[in-house]
Write a sequence for this structure.
């Protein structure tokens, strides 16, 4: 979701200024008391089912509840052993064998087996489930054919349990990003009772899970998670309990944080914060962008999309109110080539393209409905673009602002001409931005389909050499930008209210993912020249 630009600017200015004003802070956990972390989050719908998870907060929450074969390093995000203690790869790079830990189990004590992964993955790629992230499995042999209903024989699928502790995965072709992909929440195992559940367990008050914590209670305003003592690495989990409180008001969450009633808040009124130790802010592997409904006429014509984009004064739309303005979809990542989207206005070329498409001067174009998040900077950008198109082409437009929950549900219907989104990469690789646009991707809300783009991405997936792979992915991105299916606005920054002088194991990273397993309270220490009094 987009951030309010002025708030982030304020945070970044505070970082530079390093103000020294003091504010109340959350206390250290008392000696002998359970280590309970209180977290504040936005009061909106939250799913516990990996089948339909989508938001950044859900991804964060799932680091507590679930663990897959591999997990992400809290600093580098590189894959680390999770439920799998080791693995081997065939010489041709296509077949992986994962050995599960002998002491891995669910929170209710049931032993975790390779079959739990098979059943959970089958649930994710069930054509009837329409899981948002099922397309991530397409790298596995037969997965795409299965989830699109073309394959019925499970024996032809590329994942199987060879024994209780050995899972074999065969890929369609070698894929350099596969191990990183396995750290994604789509690949976690869920308990057999949940796989077989005939009704939704999404709003369950308790939950059997295999992660470092398990859900023990849930209300509309709060979730409580406790340490999973049956987790294979429970001895290294630093917290005993996580209490997630939901807020409608960022100011109220901030006030509770500053008063010490909350240790970490993912929402905040940063104007209230004066001490730079009380927050963390950093750029993310994330992009906000507009996208056309590419499967509906006339917006399915790249000439019309590009013509509209060439009429926009992008230096104004991507102006001073936006952090890290950009014309590219994939944020900067080491070794990835430069690509260039539409940056300059070219009215003459725009009119030439419209005439070629059969709409000279824009005559005959239908009303353009633009859907955006209410009260966001993208709403301002949409109004500026609409005003330009109305002035230049007399194009009738409507900018419809919606709240977040309504927006995400509504956008799947593709009842729009232009919409907006903010995508946070699921793993630190350009592919996470490009796979969204593949034909058949469950997250392809634009309905974009281009066989040449699909082929270029698929070719890149099989390239082992990092430089050649990145060049091929950049070719695919350039094709996407040239078609004007996506109109990038800016790369995002993120801010959290958290005091890292009191909390350890929380690290800034480009995916804004902070696994709960590593978070703990720091132990307060007196200065070396101060004698400690004995306890009475």
């Amino acid at each position: 979701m987009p951030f309010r630009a002025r708030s982030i600017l304020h945070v970044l200015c505070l970082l530079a200024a390093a103000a020294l004003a003091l504010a109340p802070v959350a206390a250290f956990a008392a000696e002998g008391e359970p280590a309970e972390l209180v977290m504040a989050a936005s009061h909106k719908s939250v799913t516990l089912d990996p089948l339909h998870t989508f938001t950044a907060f859900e991804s964060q929450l799932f680091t507590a509840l679930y663990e897959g074969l591999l997990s992400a390093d809290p600093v580098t995000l590189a894959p680390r052993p999770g439920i799998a203690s080791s693995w081997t790869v065939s010489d041709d790079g296509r077949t992986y064998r994962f050995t599960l830990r002998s002491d891995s189990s669910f929170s209710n004590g049931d032993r975790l087996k390779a079959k739990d992964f098979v059943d959970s993955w089958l649930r994710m790629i069930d054509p009837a489930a329409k899981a948002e992230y099922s397309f991530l499995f397409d790298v596995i042999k037969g997965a795409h054919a299965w989830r699109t209903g073309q394959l019925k024989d499970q024996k032809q699928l590329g994942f199987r349990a060879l024994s209780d502790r050995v899972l074999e995965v065969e890929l369609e072709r070698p894929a350099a990003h596969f191990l990183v992909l396995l750290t994604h929440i789509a690949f976690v195992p869920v308990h057999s009772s949940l796989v077989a559940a005939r009704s939704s367990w999404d709003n369950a008050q308790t939950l059997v899970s295999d992660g470092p914590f398990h859900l023990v209670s849930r209300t509309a305003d709060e979730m409580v998670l406790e340490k999973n003592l049956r987790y294979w690495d429970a001895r290294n989990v630093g917290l005993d309990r996580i209490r997630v409180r939901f807020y409608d008001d960022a100011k109220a969450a901030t006030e509770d944080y500053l008063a010490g009633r909350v240790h970490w808040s993912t929402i905040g009124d940063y104007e209230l914060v004066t001490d730079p130790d009380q927050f963390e802010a950093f750029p993310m592997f994330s992009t906000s962008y507009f996208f056309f409904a590419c499967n509906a006429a006339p917006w399915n014509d790249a000439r019309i999309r590009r013509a509209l984009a060439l009429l926009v004064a992008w230096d104004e739309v991507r102006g001073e109110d936006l952090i890290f303005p950009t014309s590219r979809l994939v944020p900067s990542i080491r070794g990835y080539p430069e690509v260039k989207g539409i940056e300059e206005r070219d009215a003459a070329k725009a009119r030439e393209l419209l005439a070629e498409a059969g709409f000279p001067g824009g005559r005959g174009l239908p009303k353009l409905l633009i859907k955006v998040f209410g009260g966001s900077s993208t709403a301002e950008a949409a109004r500026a673009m609409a005003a330009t198109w109305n002035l230049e082409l007399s194009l009738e437009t409507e900018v419809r602002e919606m709240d977040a929950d309504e927006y995400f549900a509504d956008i799947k219907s593709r009842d729009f001409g232009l919409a907006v989104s903010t995508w946070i990469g699921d793993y630190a690789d350009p592919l996470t931005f490009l796979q969204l646009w593949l034909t058949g991707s469950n997250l392809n809300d634009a309905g974009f389909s281009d066989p040449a783009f699909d082929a270029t991405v698929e070719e890149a997936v099989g390239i082992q050499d990092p430089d050649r792979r990145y060049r091929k992915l950049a070719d695919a991105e350039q094709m996407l930008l040239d078609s004007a299916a996506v109109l990038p606005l800016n790369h995002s920054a993120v801010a959290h209210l958290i005091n890292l002088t009191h909390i350890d194991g929380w690290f800034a990273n480009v995916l804004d993912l902070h696994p709960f397993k590593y978070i703990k309270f720091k132990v307060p220490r007196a200065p070396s020249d101060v004698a400690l009094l004995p306890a009475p």
About this structure: Residues 377-393 form the longest helix (17 residues). The longest strand covers residues 279-292.
